[in-house]
Amino acid sequence: MGAEIMRINGTSSANIAANAKPSAVKPESNDKAGEIKSTGDKRDKRIEKLEKMQNNYEMLVRQLETVNAQNGASAKASEIRLKCIKIAMRIMSGDIVPDGDHRFLLENDPELYGKAVMMRIQKENPEKHKRISEDDDGFDADLPDIEIQTENESESEDI
């Protein structure tokens, strides 16, 4: 009966062992080493991905800072331009404009100042406006506003 146990379906256990492929049977230590290697590869890939994300983030932050600096400068320029236009409109409409605003317009947009003075119309009752521009130097804060007389006004006074 011992010989019959050794034979399985007409094949001896010695033939089975000889026909077995060595790659089918892996030692446990190789499985763990492979798992560790694949885990290390996954970790390296995650680290690389995180480094790329961090570099992209830093690049976006630098770009955002640049855009904010540009927007800040253009916003200030736009604010100055808007003040110049308001002052010019007041001058052209014949209203009384503070000297500080005249100076502000002359310094920031001399061409517009020249056009505003040349296109100024006469009003019977001109409005007196407060200063639009900031009092940067405080030079004319206490000075009274001066009305600009045109040639027509001075001729009518002489008659």
Summarize it.
This protein has six helices and two strands, in the order αββααααα.
What attributes does this structure have?
159 residues; mainly alpha; two-stranded antiparallel sheet; rod-shaped
Structural class based on helices, strands and sheet pairing:
mainly alpha
- Kindly report the oligomeric state of this protein: single chain
Mean of residue pLDDT? 75
Separate helix tally: 6
Taking all Cα atoms into account, the compactness measure Rg is: 45 Å
Largest sheet properties: 2 strands, antiparallel
Residue stretches low in confidence (pLDDT < 50, at least 5 long) are 1-8, 138-144
| Number of DSSP-assigned strands | 2
Instruction: Assign a percent range to the helix content.
Output: 55-70%
Secondary-structure element order, N to C: HEEHHHHH
Strand arrangement, largest sheet? Answer: 1-2
What is the distance, rounded to the nearest whole angstrom, between the alpha carbons of the first and last residues? 152 Å
Approximate shape? rod-shaped
Q: How would you describe the overall organization of this protein?
A:
- With 159 residues, the chain is mainly alpha-helical.
- Helix content is 65%, strand content 3%.
- It is built from six helices and two strands, in the order αββααααα.
- A two-stranded antiparallel ribbon has the order 1-2.
- Helix 3 (28-92) packs parallel to helix 5 (110-118).
- The termini are far apart.
